[in-house]
């Protein structure tokens, strides 16, 4: 059974991407970071995003790299501690050069809001109160 996940994302400007995610409060594992790749720590010990320069990303695939500003291949969803923390992260993303691609949605038991990073990758930030999850009838 897998114990860690590494989501690999192509980026046009590695420094810009690192600055963006640092502004949001994330850190990087320097052991796996150099001038071609940066290891974004989402949940230390288990969840990471490898931000790879497009040239480096191309060494892992023979397929064309999707332009995330025009197409969507993946939605990356991360949780937050509260509705306020969801909004705080989205606001920081916009301050750092990201954009909002969907309005917030409150489902009663789950609140979500979304941003796109400077490369167009879509991030869903959500807060869930599972005690309010509708029960099957």
Question: Could you characterize what this model shows?
Answer:
The protein has 137 residues and is an alpha/beta fold. The chain has 2 domains: 1-60, 2,3-Dihydroxybiphenyl 1,2-Dioxygenase, domain 1; 70-137, 2,3-Dihydroxybiphenyl 1,2-Dioxygenase, domain 1 (Roll), CATH 3.10.180. Helices cover 20% and strands 37% of the residues. It has 3 helices and 8 strands. It has a 4-stranded mixed beta sheet with strand order 1-4-3-2. The mean pLDDT is 95.
Labels describing this entry:
137 residues, globular, 3 helices, four-stranded mixed beta sheet, 20% helix, 2,3-Dihydroxybiphenyl 1,2-Dioxygenase, domain 1, alpha/beta
- Report the β-strand fraction as a percent range: 35-45%
Which class best fits the helix and strand makeup? Answer: alpha/beta
The end-to-end span amounts to: 33 Å
Strand order of the largest sheet: 1-4-3-2
- Tell me, what is the CATH class of the largest domain? Alpha Beta
Number of helices: 3
Write down the overall geometry. globular
- How many discrete domains? 2
CATH topology of the largest domain: 2,3-Dihydroxybiphenyl 1,2-Dioxygenase, domain 1
Query: Helix share of residues?
Result: 10-25%
CATH architecture descriptor of the largest domain: Roll
Average per-residue pLDDT, rounded, comes to 95
Give a count of the beta strands, DSSP E runs of length 2 or more. Answer: 8
Uncertain runs with pLDDT below 50, 5 residues or more?
none
Question: What Rg, in angstroms, do the CA atoms define?
Answer: 16 Å
Biggest sheet features: 4 strands, mixed
Within CATH, the superfamily of the largest domain carries the name 2,3-Dihydroxybiphenyl 1,2-Dioxygenase, domain 1
Order of helices and strands, N to C?
EHEEEHEHEEE
